[in-house]
Amino acid sequence: MRSRRAALVLLLPLLAAAVQTSAALPFIVLHGIGDQCANHGVATFTKLLSEWSASDGHCLYCTVSLLHSLPSKHSSAPIEMLVIKLLSSFPREIGSGTWDSWVMPLQQQADIVCNKVKEMEQLRSGYNIVGLSQGNLIGRAVVEFCDGGPPVKNFISLGGPHAGTASVPLCGSGIFCIIVDALLKLEIYSDYVQAHLAPSGYLKIPTDMEDYLKSCRFLPKLNNEIPEGRNATYKERFSSLENLVLIMFEDDAVLIPRETSWFGYYPDGAFDPVLPPQKTTLYEEDWIGLKTLDEAGRVKFVSVAGGHLGISKGDMRKYIVPYLVDRSSSKTLWWSISDLVGVTWHAARELALGLTESDGAVLGSLSS
Ligand SMILES: *[C@@H]1O[C@H](CO)[C@@H](O)[C@H](O)[C@H]1NC(C)=O
C-alpha cells in the first residue's frame, strides 16, 4: 500500500499535465423524458464520464423545473376537458427539461439543441453525443437535421427508442401523470396529441402503420420511413458517424420491445416476432445508413444487465468511456501514459476518499 501511494504522488503532476493538454473531444449528454440536467442521476453520470475520459461533458437542456407551478387541485370536469384546460394554462418556458421533455414536440426540442451546439465554441471541431432514452432521438435529429452544426463523431446510445416504442414511457402518479394518461387516451396520432406530447412522436403501433406513417410527426421522418419523403442528406449525415454504440438493457421494461435500442422492432402489422435490426426494412433498404455503418464495422451492439438506463459504473467504463477518450493515432504513446495515469488517479481518489469501487447503477432512479 505504501509503495502504491508513493507511486501515486509521483504520478499526480503527470495527471495534471494530462488533463490540461487533453485533446479528447467534448461530449454532450441528452437526457430522457421527465428528467433534467440538475437531477442527481444525470449530473453524476455526466461528471463521472467526464472524469474517466478526461473530456469535457455538458448536459444540455438544463434548467429549473416548472413542475412546482402545476395546480395542486383539479376539478371534477371530464378528464379531456381538464387536460386541455390545464395544458393551456401552464407556463411554457423553453428549456425546462422536466416539463418540456414531456410536452414539447421532439422536432422543437431538437431545434433548440441544434441551436445550442452551434453556439458552443468548444464543439467547433467536433463532439460526441451520449443519449439517454428519448434523448437519443433528439441526438439523432441533431445529427441528421441540424444544418451547419458541428460534426458529431461518436454516438453512444443508452436505451434509445430508435425504431419506436409500442407503449408510452411510464409516467408515475400525481397530477402531471393524470394529464399524460388522459392525453394518451385521446388518439395518439391526432394533431392535438402530436403537438402536445413528445412520446407520441415515436409511438409506433405495428398494427396501425398507416396512421403512424401518415400522422406521426417525428420518427417517420427521422428514420426516412416515408417512401416519398426520404432525404439522402439524413442518410449521408448519419452514416458519417465514426462509431454508433447501441446499448440495450436486458431487463428494460420501459421500451416495448427493448430491441428497439438496437433498431430491432416488430414487423409491420403484427406484434411478433421481434425482428433483429438486420432483418428490418429500415436496415435492409438502408434508409438512414445503419447498414452502411454496420458493414463498415462502426456499429457496436451492446447488451448490458439491468432495467431501463440502469447502467453500472463498470459498464460505463467498458462501453462508453472508450469512445469519449482521445484515440487519435498520433497520440498513442501519450495516451497510453495518460490512460495509466487516469487509472492511477481513480485508485488514488478512492484511497483518499476511503471508498471501494461500488458498482451500483448511476442512473437507476431515472424514469426514461
Ligand atoms: C433534405 O434535408 C436537407 C437538410 O435538412 C435539406 O437542406 C434539403 O432541402 C432536404 N431535401 C429535400 C428533398 O427535402
Q: Would you write up a description of this structure?
A:
- This protein has 368 residues and is of the alpha/beta class.
- It has a single domain, classed as Alpha/Beta hydrolase fold, catalytic domain (Rossmann fold, 3-Layer(aba) Sandwich).
- It is 42% helix and 9% strand.
- The protein is built from 16 helices and six strands.
- Strands 2-1-3-4-5-6 form a six-stranded parallel β-sheet, with helices on both faces.
- α3 packs across α7, α5 packs across α6 and α6 crosses α11.
- About 13% of the residues have low confidence.
The Rg value, from CA coordinates, equals 21 Å
What summary fits the major beta sheet? 6 strands, parallel
Strand order of the largest sheet: 2-1-3-4-5-6
Number of domains: 1
Tally the beta strands: 6
At CATH level 2, the architecture is 3-Layer(aba) Sandwich
- N-to-C series of helices and strands: HEHEHHHEHEHHHHHEHHEHHH
CATH superfamily label:
Alpha/Beta hydrolase fold, catalytic domain
CATH topology: Rossmann fold
Helix content: 40-55%
Shape: globular
Oligomer: single chain
Given this structure, which CATH class is correct? Alpha Beta
Distinct ligands, ions and cofactors found in the model? 2-acetamido-2-deoxy-beta-D-glucopyranose
Mean pLDDT: 80
Low-confidence sequence ranges: 16-21, 62-81, 88-95, 329-334, 349-357
**Span of the ends, CA to CA:** 42 Å
The SS-based structural class is alpha/beta
GO molecular function: thiolester hydrolase activity
InterPro entries: AB_hydrolase_fold
Signal peptide: 1-24
Keywords: Hydrolase, Signal
